[in-house]
Amino acid sequence: MTVAEDRPRMPAEEFERIAAGAEREGVRLEFVHGKPGAKAAPDGDHDEIVRRVMEHCVQQRPDLWLYPERGLKVETYRRGRAKPDGTLASKGSFAGQGEWAAADQVVTVVEVTSYDNDTDKRDRDEKPRAYAETGIPVYLLVDRESCELLVFSEPEDGAYGNVARRSFGRTVTLPEPVGITLDTEPLKDWVR
């Protein structure tokens, strides 16, 4: 990758202005690795997966909350803007912050793949790097195409040092500082 490829095509502040206008029109935008992109609207199965993960979080870690669609400042120097499907952090972590919050209290981000190519590519290829650069300890990707969970952990030098793949139907424990165990059997019902 060249330096020019990693340089934002617009300042984050300009993106925020554009994103705010788009949101009023029902379009959700993200800004990852210098490129703006629309985020696909979730379908009902997508929502059920997020709900299922949220239930596990609430039951096993009542000190944390899974915030849906929480805007985060991501990447090196926090130049990017992402809206994960779920952001796990201590309750009250985002009080007093605007639409795009600092991610220093985040312990996990959750993304559920969509059937939209642009969003899907960001979730699989671009966001792992952005979240690792931010220092988010765990990135959970629920991949509905391959019917598996990808658990990214141990962020260091802009990359996750560990990636574990687990097929739907298995029990998966997210590493510390999360420590939540997910029963993934029901996820089989929410894929095409």
Structural descriptors:
192 residues, alpha+beta, tt1808, chain A, six-stranded mixed β-sheet, three-stranded mixed β-sheet, 4 helices, globular, disordered N terminus
Describe the model.
There is one protein chain. The protein is an alpha+beta fold. It has one domain: tt1808, chain A (Alpha-Beta Complex), CATH 3.90.1570.10. 27% of the residues lie in helices and 34% in strands. The protein contains four helices and 13 strands. A six-stranded mixed beta sheet has the order 3-6-8-9-10-11. Strands 5-4-7 form a three-stranded mixed beta sheet. A hairpin with a 4-residue loop joins strand 9 and strand 10. It starts with a helix and ends in a 9-residue tail after the last strand.
Biggest sheet character: 6 strands, mixed
The N- to C-terminal Cα distance equals 35 Å
Number of domains: 1
Strand order of the largest sheet: 3-6-8-9-10-11
The amount of beta strand, in percent, is: 25-35%
Element-by-element helix/strand order = HHEEHEEEEEEHEEEEE
Radius of gyration: 16 Å
CATH class value:
Alpha Beta
What overall form do the CA principal axes indicate? globular
| Total count of helical runs of at least 4 residues | 4
Q: Looking at this structure, what is the CATH superfamily?
A: tt1808, chain A
Tell me the CATH architecture: Alpha-Beta Complex
Oligomer: single chain
Give me the count of strands.
13
Structural class: alpha+beta
Q: Might you state the CATH topology name?
A: tt1808, chain A
Helix content: 25-40%
How would you concisely characterize the structure shown here?
The chain has four helices and 13 strands.
